[in-house]
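I'd like us to work through together how a protein chain folds, taking it slowly. To get us started, please write out a protein record for me. Go ahead whenever you are ready, and we will take it from there:
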Amino acid sequence: MYDFEKVKDFTNTTVEKISESKYIRDKRIVHSVTLACAFGVVFGMCAAANTGTQPVTFSTTAGITSVLASNSAAYSGSATAGISSVLAVNLDVENALNSSDSAVISTAASDSSDVDYGYENLGMGKCAGNLNVRETPSEGGKLLGKLPEHGAVEILKEEDGWYQIESGELEGYVKAEYIATGDEAYEIAADEIATMATVTGDGLRIRQEPSTDSPVIINLNSGEKLPVVEKLDGWVKVSVDSDEGYVSADFVEIADELPTAKSLDELAYGAGVSDVRVNLVNNALQYVGNRYVWGGTSLTNGVDCSGFTMQIYAQYGIYLPHSSRAQAGYGRAISASEAQPGDLFFYGSGGISHVAIYMGGGQIVHASSARTGIKISNAFYRSPLKVVTLLH
């Protein structure tokens, strides 16, 4: 009889050793290598039992090839011979665990680079906060947009310490020192990838429950991207700002996506818009890409929707409470068609639960959700419940 408890101990120890590696971060790799180890040991035991050879000896650091090699006679001509030869190729756990860092990095790199993120030359932002995207490779170049801390880019070329990149709908230049490439980029991407649902038609109804009989809580327009919470049979549970609801799977496209740069195109304010309004909006835009934190009030370290509007307006001598519902009671109510840059748009399902700053041109800037942070959206990505003006 062979002690199968030793197989269990051997497997658990292998998991611990592989998991300790800072380079092997994908649990699937850990599980795959561990299963290979366990299979190798079990096959050796079974083959030895059938042929009368010496039983497999266990060591928590023994490599799979050493186990196989010590029982080569047991494998010869047996039904497990093909399996043992496959396992023996590149599955020397002892060597993998005890090899130099460079060898482990090489193994991790080959695994991570096999993942297709939709980029030919992937780069990932690695600076603290947003990275400026400029029109030319110069600190004095016109600012085109912002790349989030861990935003993804397609690197087109390098030029004097700058990368020319494409990200989202934006093309420009970023400082190369703030972009991770190669293995480092893939490690960051593995943590940042998220499943998103893109709305494919205007007037998409988000319901309270996954049923056409359920009440509609939000209407969304084409092109909006929503974090996927759960995929069901014919329905998708999505997150919209601080709300959650269900959409028909027929009207969204599901894909795994990485965060990308956001454009800061100059706004066409039109005649008669005060300098205060223009300044307030431009001030708010500098925080695009920063973190969303529920209950937060820091524009740089994390803020929620009402904390964002509260802090921006406080810089202009207007002090609002930290509540979107309460903020809706301030100022003068106006129609959406009367809105000017700096006015507040309020949204919600069954009541006000979200607030944003109108930029003009049919756009808003707001602290949306933990996934998307502070971002720019179409002002009518969902139907506003109220619009108020506090500026003159």
